[in-house]
Design a protein that fits this description.
Blueprint (H helix, E strand, L loop, with lengths): L14 E2 L2 E2 L5 H17 L3 H15 L5 E3 L1 H7 L2 E6 L10 H13 L4 E6 L3 H13 L2 E7 H6 L1 H9 L3 E5 L6 H14 L4 E3 L10 H9 L1 H14 L5 E5 L4 H7 L9 E9 L11 H4 L1 E5 L2 E5 L24 H9 L2 E7 H15 L5 H15 L5 E6 L7 H8 L10
Parallel strand pairs: 4-14, 5-6, 5-8, 6-7, 9-10, 9-14, 10-13
Antiparallel strand pairs: 1-2, 3-4, 11-12
Helix pairs in contact: 2-4, 4-5, 4-9, 5-7, 9-11, 10-11, 14-15
Length: 407
């Protein structure tokens, strides 16, 4: 089997240790079983693997390069490298699993794909894949994020997707997931819910992880070719956790490689509703059809969350991350809004690379590791570019960085 699909977990019921599974109505479980069966068949189909590989190379532009951030390294006294997922077609890692999911949907005879999106990167990637492969596409997005990530909304509509506002609650990512699940349950037979991260009921945490593992497979070989050894540290931001699992998956057996996931501390880690640090402040719970760490209110329901990065403000996390946290294999820390925005501008001005705010969290975490004396090499998964964020950043933070007068 292709290395991208060689993993020992989850088990047949979708569990990573005690996390994962499928907690959905019986009628929807039958549909999930069909999806799982179809996925298990195509992942071993040489024609499917060849088609996906061709699209990765000729359409996405893989392999994405690794870049030595020399100025950032000199500033902080630690060799820092970037896995440039921001250079993928559509500008982020999301296209990796969207192509796989839309190919799966097409082979299952579905006519439409639907999804949630926060920052809009998953929505753009799914709309792109659907346009390429000839399927209809509905994207559910919180009203707050629609206003905040306007460039990506325009892209989705240009690509032919129907953008559906989520108007309840905080009108952000969690509510977009709620809205998409409701729409999916109304018709799970002609459409496929293309979940945008390593979350949701089995088989999605496994399936999205598998499609994203191309990141780690490439990075492992590229770094060895560049340096003759593996990186000492891996760093990736974690909301649901797809980009992080994509990078980490190829290094799990390498005990000499330290792995670091960073969550959003938002405006205040100590104030409810002002962060989305699920693994740091949460506890085991069940939502959106899977069991993992989650932030819960006093009734056991999903807590209100916040992050300056629309793609990170989710009150749960992928079950494999919960498993890796409990094992101690990955260390999960936090990055505040201020640290992320500082890193956004620092990478832009030191290296000429404007990162997505989500990815800026990973840059900030790497900087913090260097400040604390971490030695050796750090490889950051730069999961997306910041085109989508520039209007928001300038409007809200530009004055602090001397660019408000240009707007």
């Amino acid at each position: 089997m292709n290395k991208q699909f060689e993993h020992t977990l989850p088990n047949s019921e979708g569990y990573f240790g005690e996390y994962g599974g499928s907690f959905i109505p019986p009628e929807l479980q039958a549909v999930m079983n069909d999806i799982n069966q179809a996925y298990q068949e195509i992942r071993q189909d040489p024609e499917f693997v060849a088609e996906l590989t061709r699209l990765y190379q000729d359409y996405v532009g893989r392999p994405s390069p690794i870049f030595h951030a020399q100025h950032l390294s000199q500033t902080y006294g630690c060799d820092i490298y970037l896995k440039r997922e921001d250079l993928n077609h559509t500008g982020a890692h999301k296209i990796n699993h969207c192509l796989g999911e839309v190919l799966l949907a097409k082979k299952m005879g579905k006519t439409k794909v639907i999804a949630e999106t926060g920052a809009g990167q998953h929505g753009v990637a799914l709309a792109t894949a659907a346009a390429l492969l000839g399927l209809e596409c509905d994207i559910h997005m919180g009203e707050v994020d629609i206003a905040k990530e306007h460039p990506n909304v325009v892209r989705m509509r240009i690509l032919g997707a129907n953008v559906i506002p989520a108007t309840h609650g905080r009108k952000t990512l969690k509510e977009a997931v709620d809205s998409a699940f409701q729409a999916y349950m109304a018709d799970p037979h002609t459409q496929l819910y293309a979940i945008g991260s390593v979350v949701g009921p089995h088989p999605f945490p496994m399936m999205v992880r598998d499609f994203q593992s191309i990141i780690g497979i490439e990075a492992r070989q590229q770094f060895q070719d560049m340096k003759g050894q593996l990186p000492d540290h891996l760093v990736a931001c974690v909301g649901g956790g797809s980009n992080a699992m994509g990078l980490f998956s190829a290094f799990l057996e390498d005990s000499n490689v330290a792995m670091h996931g960073c969550e959003p501390a938002g405006r205040s880690l100590d104030e409810v509703g002002e962060h989305a640090a699920t693994l740091t402040k949460g506890e085991p719970g069940t939502m959106h059809g899977f069991h993992s760490y989650m932030l819960k209110d006093d009734k056991g329901e999903p807590e209100k969350v916040y992050s300056v990065a629309s793609g990170l403000d989710y009150p749960a996390v992928g079950p494999q991350h919960a498993y890796l946290k409990d094992l101690g294999r990955v260390q999960y820390g936090v990055v505040s809004d201020k640290e992320a925005i500082d890193a956004f501008f620092e990478l832009s001005r030191l290296e000429g690379i404007i990162p997505a705010i989500e990815s800026a969290h990973a840059v900030a975490h790497a900087i913090n590791l260097a400040k604390k004396g971490s030695k050796g090499t750090i490889l950051i998964n730069l999961s997306g570019r910041g085109d989508k964020d520039i209007d928001f950043v300038v409007e809200n933070y530009g004055k602090q960085y001397g660019i408000a007068s240009l707007i």
